[in-house]
Each structure stands twice: as structure tokens, then as C-alpha cells.
Amino acid sequence: MLGVSNKQQTNATNIPVVFNMANFLVSSVHDMKNSVSMLICGLDKVLTSAEAVHLSTHAELVQMNHEAKRINNRLIQLLTLYKLGQKIYPFDPQSICLDDFLRTTVAQYAQLLKFHGIHLEVHVHPDLYWYFDEDLISGVIGNALNNAVRHAHHHIVISASECEGKLTLRVEDDGDGYPVELLEGNGNVMQSVNFHGGSTGLGLYFSAMVAHMHRNHGSRGELHLENGGSLQGACFVLHLP
Amino acid sequence: MNINPLDTSTPAAELNFSGKNVLIVDNYMEMRSIFRDILSSCGAEVKKIHMATNGNEAIAWLKKVAFDIVLCDLILGNGKNGQQVLEEAKHQSLIGPACLWIMITAEKTTEAVTGAAEYQPDAYLLKPVTEASLRSRLAKTWAKKEAFAEIHKAMKQQDYAKAMSLCDQRLACDKAHAADLLRTKCDLLLVTGEYDRAKQVLEGILAERDFPWAKAALAKILLKKNDLDAAKCLLEETAEANPAYLEVQDLLAQTLQVMGDLAGAGNVLERAVKLSPNSVIRQKNLGQVSMKLGKMEDAERAFRKSVSLGENSALRTADAYLGLAKACSANKNSEQALKVLGQLKKNFATDEVRVKALAVEGMIHQQSGNSEKAKQIAGEIGQSIGDSNVHPDSEGALEIARLLMITGDKEKAIQLLQREIKNNPESAALLRDVAEIFDQAGMGEEGSRLIETSRQEAMLIMNRGVLLISKGQYEEALSAMRDAYAVMPANIRVLLNLAHVIITYMQKNGATSELIDEARHSLQTANELSPGEPRFIRLTAALNELTALR
After folding, report:
1. How far apart are CA B296 and CA B273, in angstroms?
2. ipTM above 0.90, yes or no
């Protein structure tokens, strides 16, 4: 998964090369994640105090907090992908109330949205329940939301609905839409991932992986990228069986 | 419906924890103060929020105060980790079913989702814990606790009929907890032995969705019905689709063991241990299978791991110590083996364990060439099981028989083995172990004959009472079952049948306190030997009804 061999190697002089790069990478990610967690908690605490709003650096703090959360999400994605590759990810689908789920997910972005002056709407029926791994899908929606915040002009809409026996989650913005190259690879997001093309690689790869993991009675989850939709911008569409 | 994310009137904001006792367990001061601030913003009073920086402090607090909410980090530095604190708290009943326990983890681990079910926290929360995430998790978990409060209470009182009807009532109106309610209902049907009904419910659930837990439950039913091939098939398929769902792997290993495929069971356990190396019980099981396979080094490693993991855990077992001692001895390290037995005696002080440890000690001396000492110990054990009411469990009895056999007291060994066969005539695994002991003593053929006659004899008298009852011969049934009990005092089916016959007799002829006591004693013995048998639960309910009528 990380492009590092797990096998123990022996070099010419017969000194065993016992170190395993994957293990170093994974434990470093762990270690960084702990620090980033503390950083986020600290910033959150500062930002929730009433005086913080009057600080001249408040805007910077909000942005810093957001960046720290982004780093944390990326690290979680790396760890999760590693575990998926090793078949040790404890996939744990539960019955989830979409209303609660989306409320909690978007609440983490409230400050950032306010900061950017973006209006977010969530469309969901309060009685809609679906069965999925909450941590994974929350990572996926967080990703899409991050992307949308970066590219939206004024407006983002998130919706959840049941359609032909599947759950459809849409994250739409009023930005300029996805680049054509990304849309061309549609239907196979994994193929369109370009590790040299900036930041889209890991997030999309992760989201597609997560979609595929969700299965029921022979059908599996899918990820689609479109342009257009209700806001005439980018639409990130996730179908879960 | 629209949600404005800046609107704070989320359901989580309605939490009110005033008057609640809260415990925060975390080794980082910053984290403790963050949690305290969030909880106090949910209405908890600061003077009722207590802090612990490690496992021992947490246990000390749990002994002092009845907590309503515990927030506990999984990793606590040296000593107990969060999971071990929870295990001990539940094991020692330091927390009641109403206490809400949230485990905080840096990442989602296999153990976190698939530990021993009865020692699971109410929820896990991944770091970083923000105010929004903690509030929402608290609100959700609190609502679930309330939804299940009455059901759990009935379960604790073993009033399964009531628990089941409460489940049904809630299922009709509570969509938020429907999935958990259905699962609980299936668990209840399994506990009470209503396998056909459970199967029906499970098949209905599976028609909607591929739940791995439902498949595991279906496999359990197949196991109970002794349909081993079907159970194996279903478990393999489920394990393939959900490689990190370890309960399925454990069940598969158990099935393969019953089928006599030790190598297969060993492979499955080894794979599971690689995924999740920190289970006290799984490491012990792996040790036992490895030992039977003659892989003594693997056995020693697994037992050692189980013992060291168990150090801080309520789940530690005497069997892991005994296994480790045996493995060390087999690996020619008798000194180490005796040391392990010393530790065992310090940690487990019951007569049953003492006798079992003594038998292992005898074997260690025998293996290290000190047959005089072995003989002396064998004599000591022969005495103590002869004239006291020490009843070692099956494994202990076999251990003793092995020692007696090897030190020359074959007659006593055979007696002991015959009794074990009669107590467990339907356990293929036990019969295999007994045959092996005979084989090692060079009396394979004689052994097979002895096993077969003892088994047949047991099977014959085991069901006599029930047969007589069905013919309406109540007096004869009662005396037949009492005779059977005299010969097979630790045979579960005999114990349950005796209770059944007494209860049926009383239903016909009226209850007396002597008969009630006799039935209750019989049921309790059965439950000690094999806790939670569905028939035990049904018969206890029937007996309670009779007692209430009196």
C-alpha cells in the first residue's frame, strides 16, 4: 500500500536489514496524530472562549484550527488506507440517523464557513436512517466539504436521500466545478487519481475506497463526480447500498 | 428539511448532567481539563467531576463513588489501560448497568470493535475530541442507555420473558434503536434456547442486509444443533468478507476444534492473534491448541503472552499459567515451569486450582527425571481428592489422571477417567483427550473399550427419567434420575433432567420445600459447570413459578 516491501531482506554482506519502512511510517503517523489532536483541542478551547472573538488574531486562529483539522483528517486517511491494505481495519457499520450525522459533521465547519462567508444548507429527512461505518463516511463527507469550502463562491448544499434502495449523499457548491480531467475518469475515481496533480489524490482515493467497502447483497457503494447540480458547480455524489 | 450549521439548537445541546457524578481518566492534564470544561458546559457541576491520571487511581475512585458517566482514554501510560480498567470495574461490579462509559481512542483498533462483548464500553470516541463530537456522542449514548435501561434490568434479573416483551414494545415505536433492539432480541432468544425462533428472526434480518453479527449468531445456532459442517461453511464465508471481525474467527476456531481439526483451528487463531494480539483469552486458546499440536514453542509464547496481558486484567485465567508451566516443562525448562506455578498459587487461591497445579507440578518433576517426587505428589493428590469435597474440573481431572497413570496408580487413574466420561459422554473433544491418555500409557485398545462401555452406560441412564415421565410414571422417573445423579454427579444433562423430572413431578403432585431445594441444587450445579444453558434458564423460570405458587 505504501510502496514499501514488508519482507525482511538480506543484503550481500549477510547483515539482515530488519527495519521495515512501513512500520516507521505508520508509527510516525500515529505519533503526529497525537500531537495534532492536542493542537486541535487547544485551539478549539481558545476559540470557544468569548474573548477570542475580539482578538485581532481571531481570523488567523480559525484558519490555523482548520488547517490542523485538515492535517488530522489526512493522517487518519493514511492510517485507514494502511489498515485496509493489511486487512486489519475494523469495519463497523451501524444504523445511523442521517439528520444527527450531518448535523455533527457540519458543526465542525461552522466557524470556517462563517469565516469565509459561505452559506451552507443541509437537506435531510429526520426519519432517514442508513447503515454505514460512521467514522469512515464522516471522513468522506469532511473531505468533500473541505473541497467545497475551498472552491465555493457563496453557497454549499449537502443532501441525503434514499433512492432506489440506496442512500445518496450529495455535496454541491456554486464554484467553477471539477476540472475536466477528473470528470473524464468518472466511474473509476481510482484511475483518475494523480499523485502529482496537487491535493486531490489521497482524498478521492480514500473516498472511493470507503465507498467500495460498503456492500450489501452483492451491490457496492460508488462515488461519482459531476458538474452542474442545484448550484451549477461541483457535485460530489456518494451512493451507499 | 434544512439545517443551519450555525444554529446551536442541536439535540446535543439539551443535555443536562447536573447532579451527575463524572469521572475523567486521562494521563494528559490538558485533555482532562478540556473534558472537564465540555462536561461542565453540559451542566455537570465541577465539584462532581473527578479526575484520575492512571488506571489505579481510576479504580480507587470507582470504589469510592457511584459514577453516572466515565470518560476514559484507552492508553494511560504505564499500568492498566482503559480497557483493563473497564474490565475490572465491570468484573467487580464497581459500575452498574446505568453507568455510561465512553472510551477515547487515538484511532479505531480491531480490539476497540471486537473485544469480549460483556466488557465493551457504551461508545468509542476518536481523537481529537471536540466539544461538538463529545456532546453528540454523549447525547446519543445517553438516549440509548435510557432506551435499554428497563431491558437491561430485566436481563440482569434473568427475567428473559420480560426483557423480550420490552424489546418488542420498543421495536414498535423506536426507530433510532431498531437495529440494536433486534440484535438484543436475537441474543435473548439464543440465551433462552429458542433456536428456531431466533433463526427465523435472523433470516428476516439477513434478507434486508448482510449483517456479520447476524451470520455469527446463525452459526452459533448451527453449532448448538451440532450441524458442524454448515456452521463451518457460514463462518468461513463471513470471516472472508469481514476479516477484522474477530468474534467470527474465534467461533470458527471453536468449530474446527469440535470437529477435531486442530491444525485448522490453530491457523485461524494464529491469524486472529496477528490482527489483534492483545486478547488474554484468545492467546490462551492459541496456547492450548498449539500444545495439543505439539508445537511447544508456539504454545509457550502464546501462554506467556496471555499471562502477561492478564496481569492487569480481570480476564486472566489459571489455565494460562498452567499451560505456560506445562509448555516450559516440555521445552526442558523445569525451573521456569515451577516458578510459573508459584505465581499461579499466589494469584489463584481455590482448592480446585491448587489440586490442578499440584498435578502439573507432579508432571514437571516426572519430566525432569525426578520420579520419586512425582510419585509423592501423585499420592498426595490421590488422598486429597479421595477424602475431601474438592472437585477439579474436567481438565483438572484429566491432568490428575495423566499423572496417576504415569506414576503407576493406573487403577485410580482409570476410575477418574471413567467418571469424566460418564459426566461428559457427549463431548467428542473430551473422549479424544481420554483416548490419548490411554494411548500414552500403552493401553490404547483396553482404553477404547473402557471409553465405549462407560459412554454407552451413561447415555442409557441419562434419559431414562425423561422417558418415564413421558409415559406418566412420575415416581419411577424420579428415582431413576436420582440413581443417575449418584453415578454422574457432574453430567450437565443428568443434572438438568433431574431438575426437569422433579419440577414435572411437583407440577403434578404439588411442591414441597425439600423437592424445591433438590431441584434448585441440581440446577445450580449445572449452571456452575456450564453457565447460561438455555434449559437452565427455562427450568429456573418454571421452578420460580412453583415457588411463587406455594
Report:
1. 17
2. no
